[in-house]
């Protein structure tokens, strides 16, 4: 592996993981708010 490829890999994968975590958290919070408004448990 070249230094440039390794550097790109190390810098890009945390951004991808952060984006996925953001979308999962956003969906969870949306469902949680809806459940609270309806007076039901999320689990």
Compact summary:
By secondary structure, this protein is mainly α.
Tags for this model:
rod-shaped, mainly alpha, 0% strand, 43 residues
Describe the structure.
The structure is a single chain. With 43 residues, the protein is mostly helical. The protein has one domain (1-43). 84% of the residues lie in helices and 0% in strands. The chain contains 1 helix and no strands. The protein has one helix spanning 3-38. The longest helix is centred in the middle third of the chain and has 36 residues, at 3-38. The termini are far apart. The model has no long low-confidence stretch (mean pLDDT 94).
Low-confidence stretches: none
What oligomeric state do these chains adopt? Answer: single chain
Q: Tell me the fraction of residues in β-strands, as a range.
A: under 5%
Helix content, binned percent: over 70%
Shape: rod-shaped
Radius of gyration: 18 Å
**Number of H- or I-type helical stretches:** 1
Task: Report the strand count.
Answer: 0
Q: Give the terminus-to-terminus CA distance.
A: 46 Å
Domain tally = 1
H/E series: H
Mean pLDDT: 94
Largest sheet: none
Helix/strand/pairing class, anyone? mainly alpha
Record the SSE blueprint.
Elements: H1 3-38
